[in-house]
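Example record used in the benchmark description.
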Amino acid sequence: MSKSLTFRAYLLSMLIFGMVLLGWYLATLPQQTAVTTQADAEYAALMGGGAVKKSGMPTPAEVGHTLREKLADPFYDHGPNDKGIGIQLGYSLARVLAGFSLAALVAIPLGFLVGMSPIMHRALDPYIQLLKPISPLAWMPLALYTIKDSSASAIFVIFICSLWPMLINTAYGVAAVKHDWLNVAKTLEVSPLRKAFLVVLPAAAPTILTGMRISMGIAWLVIVAAEMLVGGTGIGYFVWNEWNNLSLTNVIFAVLMIGVVGMMLDMIFGWLSRLVAYND
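Model output (structure tokens):
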């Protein structure tokens, strides 16, 4: 039953993919401009009437050709504005991982503190509620002014956008640990540090991983916009640079690569979440 469902879902996915490709192909077919009347046919021909007009959007075949060409040599480096897609994605991933790791170092211990202490929860909650809705990109001007480095500013923006989902989920997961388990640890006179690592952390791990998964998704979304602003290197800069070159084929190729890498990052955290999942 399960295999049959998977097979049908696979067929439906392939059908949707084929329909999207067909729609794309039909939308980018060359169109012949109309000649209005026989009387002014010569004038219409001079103005381009009757000529075959090609769509500005690239066809699926053109994007497929670009895909093969770019992926054949993803790590070439021909100067500041001409680097392979592998190098651009590498810069973006390095910034995302740096900002994400810094956020984890702050958010998870702070989330433990907020989740285990009602006083700290009440004291810090107004600041969290105030800072959480601010768009990460709104911090960019302040980061550029204070840090004075575009790459480090992008990492700071990733740090900010990754912080809140991890902090809130960690605090919620820690606060939701069953009191029976905490009471057993108290009865056995387990030290607070051992209780945090051996009781609270395993119990709250699924919720913490969910927060980390959300943070990584947001970070990968934000890095594209941040790199468009700071320029230099990265997949966001690549998209903006190709738009300035009016190369929509390369823009579509970059969009596909962003989607593929984002999906792979999400799959990694999905796998980690399954590792720490448990049944009560």
